[in-house]
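Forwarding the complex inputs:
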Amino acid sequence: MGIHDLCAEERRRYVTRRWFFRDCGVGLGSIALASLFGEGLRGAAGSVAPGPFAPRAPHFAPRAKRVIYLFMAGAPSHLELFDYKPQLGKLDGKLPPPDLVKGYRAAFINPNSRFLGPKFKFSRVGKSGAELSELLPRLSEVADDIAIVKSMHTDAFNHAPGQILMNTGSQMFGRPSLGSWVTYGLGSETQDLPAYVVFSTGAKGPSGGSSNWGAGFLPTSNGGTLFRTGGDPVLYLSSPRGIDAAMQKDALETIRSLNQRRLGVVGDPEIAARISAFEMAYRMQSSAPELMDLSREPKSVLEMYGAEPGKPTYANACLLARRLVERGVRFVQIFHEAWDQHGNLTHDLKKNCASTDQPTAALIKDLKSRGLLEDTLVVWGGEFGRTPMVQGGGNDGRDHHPNCFSMWMAGGGVKRG
Amino acid sequence: VLFLIALSALVLGETAAGADFEQDVRPILSGKCFSCHGEKRQESGLRLDRRDTALKGGDHGALLVPGKSAVSLLYLVVTGKHAELARMPRKGPPLTSEEVEAIRSWIDAGAVWPDDAADARAVKARTHWAFHAPVRPKLPSVRDGTWARNAIDLFILERLEREGLRPSPEADEVTLLRRLHLDLIGLLPSVQQVDQYLEEIARDGKQRAYDAAVERLLASPHYGERWGRHWLDAARYADSDGFEKDKLRFIWNYRDWVVRAFNRDLPYDQFVVDQLAGDERPDADQESRIATGFLRNSMLNEEGGIDPEQFRMDAMFDRMDAVGKSVLGLTIQCAQCHSHKFDPLTQEEYYRLFAFLNNDHEEQRVVYTPLDLQQVADIRRRVHELEDGIRHTLPDWEKRLGEWEEQVKSDATSWTVVVPHLLSEADTRFYEQKDGSLLGLGYAPTQFDYVFQAVVKAPELHAVRLELVPDPNLPCGGPGRSIWGTCALTEFKVEAAAESEPGKKSQVAFTGVTADYSNPKRALESIFDDRSGRSRVTGPVEYAMDGKDETAWGIDAGPGRRNVDRNAVFVAEKNFAAGESTILTFHIVTNHGGWNSDDNQNNNIGRFRLCVSSSPKAKASSVPKHVREILDLPRESRSPAQTVAVFTCWRKSQEDLREVNGKIDAIEAGWPEGSSTLTLAAREEQRATTILKRGDWLKPDRSVTPGVPAFLHQLPAGYAPTRWTFARWLVDPKAPTTARVFTNRVWQAYFGTGLVDTPEDFGLQSTAPSHPELLDWLACEFTDGGWGVKALHRRIVSSSTYRQSSRVTPQLATLDPQNRLLARGARLRVEGEIVHDVALAASGLLDERLGGAGIFAPAPAFLFQPPASYGPFNWIDAVGADRYRRALYTFRRRSTPYPPLLIFDTPNGDFSCVRRSRSNTALQALTTLNEPVFFECAKALARRASAESGPTLESRIAYAFRCVLSRQPTPDELAELSSFYERQKSRVAEGWVNASDLAGDPATLRASAPPTQVAALAAVARILLNLDEAITKE
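Prediction (whole assembly, two chains):
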C-alpha cells in the first residue's frame, strides 16, 4: 500500500459526509439539510407569496441565510497561496521518493518529475497567525475572519468532472448544483430577482459549463441564472426596440387583465402563477438595472473593491454579489476560470491575485461592516490542487493534483481565524 | 373526509395494516441492537440481522419463547428484568416504552419472524406489482353506462364513481381541435383548419369529424417531430460532446431517425431493438445502424490530460442509466457502486447487464440520404460494368491477375514493426493495438509535434515506413482524426542515437520518399484555417520532408475513397543504424489543423504503425494492407467483395488499362459526400467486464459474464452474449416493465402526470399507480396489438376521458388539485419547444421543413464566447427560413443550452430525462415578451392579420386572436384589445415609438394597412402571444 492509499484510508475512516454535516456545525449544511429533509415548511406568518420560491424556514435557527461561492476554476495552486511547505522548498529540484509516486496518476506529467519549491514567500498574519502567501496582502488583512481548510482532496483530476464534482457532488453530470439545492430547500427572499445568480468573470468559462449551476433533476427554475456584469444583466431583460416604457406598462396591464378573465373562466391556479410571473418580470425590468448600476455606490466602496462601473471584472462581480445578497438573493456564485497554471505559474499567479485578492478581501470587509457576514457564508476554492512536482521545462508550472488543495470559508457561523 | 383519506393513500402508496415484524420490530433491532449483534460484530455469539441466527440465539441461549414475552430473553434484557444480564442496549439509552411494548406484543402474538427476513426486500420484491408482467385486467363495471367511449373510460369512471365524482363535460369543438393539434403534432391549427373542422362537424357529425382529424394528424409528418422529441429527452440527445470542449458532434441523423421511426409507426419493440442493436440485426442496414446512436448520445470528454478509458466508462454508466430510465423504468444506475438499496438488483447483476454493452467500437459513420444512396448504387453499377468490360476484352485477365498476385507476394520488402512510446507530454493518449500500431484518442491539439521513441536492434537501417491504419473508433473510420477521418503530415523526421550514447542524436537524412497515394496539391480546407494568414497546402508526400511548415502530405482521395489505409516509405541511402542497438526518435508533426484546438479543427494522425527496413530500395506499396491480407487467403475462400477488391487493385496497376481506369476514376469522383453520424459496431473480441468496487473504474473486482437480474424475466439457456440478446430481452413480452413504462410516459405527456408518477422508477420506491388496472390494460393492449404507437395514441385521444373540459372547478381544485383522478381534462403549459413553435406557427413564420443538421437559432452572441463559454463556439445565427424552423431542430449545445428552451424546462441532454419539470417563472415572461424571435413573430402576426383578414379593426384583431388561440375572442376581450390598439396607434402616430420598429419596412406593406395600424396591431399581437392561454393546452 502506497502512502497515498494509506492517507486515503485514514481519511475515509474519519472524515465522512455524515460526520461533516452532523458534527462540523457547517452553517450551510445545517440550514439546507434541515429544511430539505423536513416537511415542506412554510415561512413565518405574514411572509410573501406562495409558490416554489416562497422562503422556507428551517428547523433550527440558521447560521447562514445566504451563500456567496467564489469558485476559482482551473484549480489554484495551494502551494503558492495557502499551504506553505518549507520542506518542499528544500527538496526543490530533487526527484520524489518512489513510494510517493507509486500508483500516482497525473494528468499530463510523468509523476516522476522533480519537486518544485514554493514560488512565493509566506508569512504569519493576523491574530490567528495563519500562514498566507505574499500574493494575498489584502486577504491577510481579513485573515482572522476566514477559516482555511488545507485538507481538501477530491476524486477527480480533470477540470470538467472536477468542477462538476465540487458543485454537484458527483463527477457524472446530472446532479443538482449546490445553489439549486439551497434554493430548492429554502426558497428565495426576493420577489424581484432570481434566487440563484451566477457570474463568470475569468479568461474562459468554467470547464463544466452551465451544468455547474444547473438544476439536475430538480425543477429547472432552481438552476442558477447567469448574470452579466455589463449590458443586460439578465437575458431578454430590455423591451425590444419599438416598445417603450409606457407601451410595455400598458401591454403588461392588458396581459394581466386578459389572463385574469381567463382565470375566471377556467379556474386554473396556474394562470394566477403566470400573472405573478409577469409581475415579477416587470419588476425585474427595473430592479435588475438598478442592481447593476454601480455608479451609485460611494467612491470609497468602489475603491475598496477596485470596481469600475461597466467593466466585466471579478471586482464588479464581488460588489454585485454583495448588492444581490442585500436584496435577498439566496445564492451567488462567481466562476473565475483563470487558475490552470501548467506553465507561467509565477506570472499568472501574480496577475490573478492582483485582480482577485483586493475584491475578495473587500467583499469580506464590506459584508462584515454591514452586519451581513454573520449570516452570509462566503466560500472560496477551486476543483483540485496542483502537484508538488514541476511541469514543463521552464521550471514554472504545476500539473493537476487531486490529493490536496485548499479552500476557505468565512461568515455564516464558520469558526474564524 | 373519506375522500381525502383515499387521496392521501393514493399519494403515499398502500400501507400495510397492523403491527408486524418488518414494520415495528425490525427497525428497533436494527437501530439499537445490530451494532453489537449484527453483520460486523456478534457479541455473546448473538446475531440479530438474520432470521436463522437470531432464532438460534447466542451464548445465553434462545432469545424468544413465542407467545410468552415474560420469559423471553429479548424482552427481559431490553427491560432490564433479567436476573444476570445487564439491560440492553448496554451503550446508549434504553428502549422507549413504545418500543418495549412493540416487542412485547410481537412476542406475545407468536413472535412471527417472516421467512427470509434476512433479506426482507426479497419478499417485497417478489410481490411487487411492477416486477410481474402485466395481466389483462377485467373491465370494471360502472353505474353510468353512457359516458364511456372505450375501456380507458371505464377504468377512470369506476374510480371516479368510487370517489363520488362525475367526469367533466366534453370540451367545446375548437378547444378539442387545438388540443389534438398540440398533442399529436405540437403545432396549432390554422384559422382555415378550424373553419374547415367546424364545417366537417356540420356535415359529418362530431364523431366522424373528430376521428378524421385524429387520422389526419397521425398521418402528418409533424407527428413524428412531436413524439420523437419526447423520446429524445429519454435518449439525452444533444448536438455537442459536453464537458469542457463541448465540440459540435454529428448525430442529427439519429434525431431524424427517431422522427422517421415515429412517422412510419415502427412498432415499439423494434424501435427499442434497433436503438440498442440495429447493427446486429440480421438484415442490418444504414437505417438500423443510425438507430444505435441512442447509445452514443453519452457525453464525451476530450479535455487535455484525460484518460479516455475513464470517460468511456463514464459513458457506459450513462448508457446503463439511459436504458434503465427510458426502457426499463428502473433506477439501475444505483447499483453501479453498490447493490441497490431498495430494489433486488445486486451490484453483480448491474455489471452483468453492463457486460452486454461493453463490447463496442465507437464509430462515426458516413451515411447517405436516399438520393445519395441511389447515386452510390448508380456509381457501383457503372464501375461494375466497366470492370466486366475488362474481363471481356482481356481474355487472359485471369492469368495476368494470377501473375500479379504472385509478384506482389514475392517482392515484399522485409519490414520490422517498431512499437514506440510517446515522449511528448500526453495530450493525446496512444493505445497499442495487436498489430503493433498505435491508436490516438482523447484531446487532439490542432498543431502538434508528436515525439515517439523506440529502440531498434538492427545493424542496417535504411528505411522507415509510416502506415496510416483505419480504425472504427476514428471519425468515418480514419485513418486520421479530422472530421472526415483524414490527416495531413506536415513533417516526418527521425533522429538516431546509439543506445549507449542516447544524448548523441543525429537527424536521419532521408534521400527519398514514396507513398501509395497523395492527393493533388491543393489549398487546405477552411476548417483548418489557423489564422496565420499563411497559404497552407496538402499534396505529394515529398511535402512531409521538405522542412516547410506550410506544406503537408495529403491523403484525401475524396468521398467514398478516403477512409482506407495509406503508407509512406522514407529511405536513406546511408545506413542510419548507430551500432547494434539504435534509439530512434520519431517526430510526427501535424501542424495542419486550425487555430482552435477546442473545436473540430484537428488534422491529426489517428492510428499508425511504424516499420523499419534494411533495404535502401524500399518503396511504398500500392497494394493496400487490406488487399494484401486478402492475397494471403486461398482464392476459393475469398468473399465476392474480396475478389472484387483484388481485381480492382490489379486493374489499377496495369498500364494498358489506363484509359478505363481513368473512366472509372471520373465516375467515382461523383461519389456523394454524405454526412456522418455516431453509431456502435460490435468488436470481434469481447472486453472483459468486471465488477467495479464502489463503481470506480480503477478498482476492478471479479469478472462477470453478460446476464440479466434474477428478479426480472430470464433469458433462454445458451443465449449469445450480445447486445442483440440484451435488446430482445428488453422487449420480450414477458418483460414486466417495458410496455408499462412506455405507455405510462405517453399517458404522462397527455395528462401531465403518469399513472405512475415516477416514470423513471417502477421499483419498490415508486408510488403506487393511480389506476393500476388501467396501466396494465394499456400495456397489454399495446403489446398484444404489436406495440403500435399510433394505435396507443388513437386509444387515448378517442376516450371520453381525454375529451373532457379542462375547467378547474373549485370542488376539483380542492379535492384533486393534481388531477390524478382525471375528473377533468388536462390543462398544461406546453413544452418549451412547442412554446417556440406556437409563436412561429401563429405568426405564419414557421418553416415546416423536416430534418437536417441542427439550426443555430438566434441567440445572444456573448453566450458562446468566454467567459460565458469555456471556449469560443461558432454559433452563427441562422438567416432566412432556417431562422424559423421548429425548435426540435435548434442546435443543442450541452454547456450552453439555448436560453428560450432552457427557460421553459427543456432538458439539455446531459443525462436521460423522462419527466420534465413544468415551471412558471419571470424569466419565461421576459422571454416571450422580449426575445428577438418572439418579437419577430408578433410583428409577423400583425402583418399576417392585416393581409389575410377583413378590413375592419375588429376583424384583424379577431383574426390574430384566432391565429394564436384558435377560438373567437369574447366581446369583452375584443373590446379590451381594441382599446389597447387605439392607445398604441395614437402613441405611434404621436411619434413616441417608430412605426417601422413594429411594422417593419413600410414599403412592403399594403395600402390598406398603413404602418401606424400595423404597428399598433403588432403591439396587440405581442399581447396575444404572451397570454397564458397561448402557450397552454386547454
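Chain A has 14 helices and eleven strands.
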